[in-house]
């Protein structure tokens, strides 16, 4: 994930927590804060030590980055996101994580409705 796609500063992350809206399912919590005029969305990932060892935590983070890479066209660009992984995420594979994150982003109403490519293939 490119540097400009990441939220790294603690002050910015705290701003997302305080002023953003939160949406959750069993596996993930997503905080979304609208940033008008931003060229591209930015994300911050949080995976607690309670979820497992470093290998497990890094795998979850890799999966989350890949999900956002694949959903890049479908996610609104003028938002900052903080994604917090919950305990059930440790036992999930990539496709399960992608489905779960997509579900939370739909709840947050930050996914574009451009899913017409699926219906045109039928």
UniProtKB/TrEMBL annotation:
Pfam families, per the entry: Ribonuclease_P
Catalytic activity: Endonucleolytic cleavage of RNA, removing 5'-extranucleotides from tRNA precursor
Annotated InterPro entries: Ribosomal_Su5_D2-typ_SF (IPR020568), Ribsml_uS5_D2-typ_fold_subgr (IPR014721), RNase_P (IPR000100), RNase_P_CS (IPR020539)
EC number from the UniProt entry: 3.1.26.5
Molecular function per GO: ribonuclease P activity
Sorted UniProt keywords: Endonuclease, Hydrolase, Nuclease, RNA-binding, tRNA processing
Keyword tRNA processing: yes
Record-stated family: Belongs to the RnpA family.
Assembly and binders: Consists of a catalytic RNA component (M1 or rnpB) and a protein subunit.
Function: RNaseP catalyzes the removal of the 5'-leader sequence from pre-tRNA to produce the mature 5'-terminus. It can also cleave other RNA substrates such as 4.5S RNA. The protein component plays an auxiliary but essential role in vivo by binding to the 5'-leader sequence and broadening the substrate specificity of the ribozyme.
Record-given protein name: Ribonuclease P protein component
Organism: Cytobacillus spartinae
Gene of this entry: rnpA
């Amino acid at each position: 994930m490119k540097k400009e796609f990441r939220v790294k500063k603690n002050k910015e992350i705290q701003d997302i927590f305080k002023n953003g809206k939160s949406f959750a399912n069993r596996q993930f919590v997503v905080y979304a804060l609208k940033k008008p005029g931003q060229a591209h969305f930015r994300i911050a990932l949080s995976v607690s030590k309670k979820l497992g060892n470093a290998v497990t935590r890094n795998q979850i983070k890799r999966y989350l980055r890949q999900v956002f890479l694949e959903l890049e066209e479908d996610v609104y660009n003028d938002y900052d996101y903080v994604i917090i992984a919950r305990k059930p995420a440790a036992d999930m594979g990539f496709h399960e994580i992608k489905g779960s994150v997509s579900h939370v982003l739909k709840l947050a109403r930050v996914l574009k409705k451009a899913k017409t490519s699926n219906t045109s293939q039928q």
